[in-house]
Amino acid sequence: MKAGAVSSLPLDARFYITKDIEMIYTAAKAITELKLKEWLEWKDKWTNIEEIQYLYSCHRTEISDYVHDHWKEDSFFGYQFLNGVNPMVIQRCQSLPANFPVTDRMVFKDGKQCLEDEMKNGNIFLCDYKILDGVKANIIKGKQQYLVAPLVLLHRTPDDKLMPIAIQ
């Protein structure tokens, strides 16, 4: 969405001023805590993974160690989704969209649960980024960029973790 200023956005697409201030504060705090100043001022392109590892090893914190150790876990993906930049996209799923052909067998391989029951119990959540469908992406340095409109299905487990179960 092109906008000259935040004030030209529709009201339902804007954050409240308190949220803006909170995000600026949180970002500044994170940069300080993670000591990312060197990353932000990095002028060269990274040419290999060792350069990224070097920056990580010089600026380790408790938070960065946790992310490093858990980033591949489904439960951490769900946590990041819920606590990320746009948690308002997540909605309780009452029925699957017609263009999202997910079956019980695909999701619950043990056969002990079914999507319909889990939806009735309020344990299935959907993130539908259909608003992005058809948005023309930028051209950066002469290369066309692409934008997708994903569907993400998440399941709240009995131990209150939000686990991804299907992504299209």
TrEMBL record:
SUPFAM superfamilies attached to this UniProt entry: Lipoxigenase (SSF48484)
Decide whether keyword Glycosyltransferase is in the record: no
**Keyword Ligase appears in the UniProt entry:** no
Signal peptide coordinates = none
Domain of life, per lineage: Eukaryota
Domain named Lipoxygenase is located at: 1-168
Keyword annotations from UniProtKB, A to Z: Dioxygenase, Metal-binding, Oxidoreductase
Q: What is this protein called?
A: Lipoxygenase domain-containing protein
Q: From which lineage does this chain's organism come?
A: Eukaryota, Metazoa, Chordata, Craniata, Vertebrata
